[in-house]
Amino acid sequence: MSTEISALANRPVIIGGGAAGLMAALQMAPEPVVLLSKAPLGAEASSLWAQGGLAAAMGDDDDPALHLADTIAAGAGLCDEAVARRIVQAAPAAVEHLARLGVAFDRRPDGGWRLGLEAAHSRNRIVHATGDGTGREIMRALIAAVRRCPSITLLEGVEARSLIVEDNSIRGVLAVNAKRPLVIDTTRVVLATGGIGGLFLDSTNPAGCFGQGLTLAARAGAKLSDLEFVQFHPTAFDGPSRPMPLVTEAVRGDGAILIDDTGQRFMADQPGAELAPRDIVARAVWRRRAEGHRVFLDARQHPGAEFATRYPVISAFCKMAGIDPATDPIPVRPAVHYHMGGIAVDIEGRSSVDGLWACGEASRTGLHGANRLASNSLMEAIVCAQWVAESVTGASRGTLKARVATAPPPASDSSAVRPILSKGLGVLRERHGIERAIRSLYPLANSSSAASDPALIGLMIAVGAWQREESRGGHFRSDFPDALPSAVPSSISLADALGTARDIVGTEFLSTGSAQS
């Protein structure tokens, strides 16, 4: 193993085996690149679970300018318009590129794109594959292409535990496999590790996605941005399975409605009704449940008898639970689905640490702002991975010295963090609940336990939520229910987050002590 690893020195290292990581690796060809995947390819990637599709202005009645307008409206004032414009303009070409790689997108009988409608889109612009299996089909094609590509060295079952940094520059990756720690000497690293859903009890993400890339970046000294903006999907299947199966927004785009256990359609009077932005729908469902009601998605009339044909994945898991969507309402509830925040990067995916890039959900490009527009995430992952690849291959390699592998940090376990974040940073937040979360997370983040890294990212999210005293997009404070006149992105470092948390914990300790004396 040592000889093999030493032979990989000075190659770019991509950490993460989802759509963004796979696409970045493919786009770097023919330059030799190393791709690290903690699990077998596709086993723990959120991309695999994506049902909705890719948003792209492919229709005759559509245009990237309309797509941009919808994206900015959903982003609630925090989108970077220049970045968003460039990304949505590149989206149609990205769909065509995936098709050339073998992705079997759904087509009309005449061969044209079959385009779906999702919330807050003004046009039918969602490109699907196998109905509700878009992520699975994209991953199938990308995995096959990666396995065929001779320039990609794929290391499955290898987990990155820390980045080696000197003078704010990447110098290597400390990783582990099933047998021992190992060091890959490199000056170029791409983080494509996915989201943070595994930090919460109720999520549509694989449990193994709990912000590992954000931890690697934060401990390396990188700036993170907009961490408080967590998108809750309003219609996760309300059952015991974790991750929670998703009932894609496209079902509502086909005419399904939300009802409670009395049969009342409670979104009817809202602008956009069931196709209002996700944060609005999620809060409405959350409040209905808080009032003691169960909530259901009623697809009995639309799409009705065509449900199983149009949504075979959803139909299969519903039937396993004894539900036929053509005749029975589907029980749903909000669940953590997507993280708008992440590692702060520029349009080429470069972070504040030299030699460190990020793409996909782990990055914060400025496309999503405070609230991701439906199906913009897979599109962003594909488009930005290509730009990251161009930037990485054009970067200087720098000088390296061989290093000996040292003891890595322990394997992470987010189980202790999930109940804390779920209680304090749910769909509705308020100061005291956030502070209780910070007080619980702070000692875990400063420990040397398996909970340390998950607690650290949870703490940074909580500090961001505590500092943003307004409600905007995916961040809703019941004690600050209005948005401030101007929208300002947040930026936070590990040192800043720990310092703020220490002040909050110290203030609470002093307050408690004085009350008892």
From TrEMBL:
The protein's Enzyme Commission number: 1.4.3.16
Cofactor(s) needed by this chain: FAD
Subcellular location: Cytoplasm
Residue span, Fumarate reductase/succinate dehydrogenase flavoprotein-like C-terminal domain: 457-482
Assigned keywords, A-Z: FAD, Flavoprotein, Oxidoreductase, Pyridine nucleotide biosynthesis
GO terms of molecular function: L-aspartate oxidase activity
Pathway: Cofactor biosynthesis; NAD(+) biosynthesis; iminoaspartate from L-aspartate (oxidase route): step 1/1
A cellular component term, taken from the record's GO annotations: cytoplasm
Catalytic activity: L-aspartate + O2 = iminosuccinate + H2O2
GO biological process: one example: 'de novo' NAD+ biosynthetic process from L-aspartate
Domain FAD-dependent oxidoreductase 2 FAD-binding: 13-378
InterPro entries: FAD-dep_OxRdtase_2_FAD-bd (IPR003953), FAD/NAD-bd_sf (IPR036188), Fum_R/Succ_DH_flav-like_C_sf (IPR037099), Fum_Rdtase/Succ_DH_flav-like_C (IPR015939), NadB (IPR005288), Succ_DH/fumarate_Rdtase_cat_sf (IPR027477)
Protein family (similarity comment): Belongs to the FAD-dependent oxidoreductase 2 family. NadB subfamily.
UniProt cross-references to PANTHER family, sorted A to Z: L-ASPARTATE OXIDASE (PTHR42716), L-ASPARTATE OXIDASE, CHLOROPLASTIC (PTHR42716:SF2)
Function summary: Catalyzes the oxidation of L-aspartate to iminoaspartate.
Name of protein: L-aspartate oxidase
Organism: Bradyrhizobium australiense
